UniProtKB/TrEMBL annotation:
CDD domains: HP_PGM_like. It comes from Pseudomonas benzenivorans. The lineage of its organism: Bacteria, Pseudomonadati, Pseudomonadota, Gammaproteobacteria, Pseudomonadales. Gene3D superfamilies: Phosphoglycerate mutase-like. This is Phosphohistidine phosphatase SixA. InterPro entries: His_Pase_superF_clade-1 (IPR013078), His_PPase_superfam (IPR029033), SixA (IPR004449). SMART domains: PGAM (SM00855).
Length: 154
């Protein structure tokens, strides 16, 4: 199974709520930079946090790839989500290539859990960082980190 973890691009600092923070122009550019890593990949599903910046990031990826598969909004990919709950939720998705669009600290903690079997070594996920993980099972400590790509600094 191949799992892609994507942190949303840079977002506005101010909004009526954290969930409503939208991507900045720079954040859109960051997403465009890392999306090239997904070109030609046989993604089965894109799962995204309901927060505006994650939804916008997922839409940018979908459009850039011409992805026709499902783009699903799930409530368990928010910043304070529990990585173990995410693993339990992912059991319902078929094997193949999944892209999760989420936030820190969840996305870093989830990556660390999948690779190391614990959350003490989270992946260093900057805005629009993309991690590629591979393994036989979606379980703690069962995946290998194949790549961790960060957008170019300005």
């Amino acid at each position: 199974m191949r799992l892609w973890l994507l942190r949303h691009g840079e977002a506005e600092l101010q909004a009526p709520s954290d969930a409503e923070r939208a991507l900045t122009a720079h954040g859109r550019e960051e997403v465009a930079q890392v999306t090239v890593q997904l070109q030609g990949r046989p993604l089965a599903t894109i799962l995204a946090s309901p927060y505006a910046r994650a939804q916008q990031t997922a839409a940018l990826v979908r459009d850039a790839l011409g992805f026709a598969g499902p783009l699903l909004t799930v409530p368990w990919l928010t910043p304070d989500g529990d990585p173990r709950q995410v693993l339990a939720q992912l059991d319902r998705y078929d094997a193949g290539e999944l892209l999760l669009v989420s936030h820190q600290p969840l996305v870093g903690a989830l990556g660390g859990l999948l690779i190391h079997g614990h959350r003490q070594q989270p992946l260093p996920m900057q805005t629009a960082s993309l991690a590629e993980l591979d393994g036989e099972l979606l379980a703690a400590g069962s995946m290998d980190l194949l790549a961790l790509v960060h957008p170019r600094p300005d």
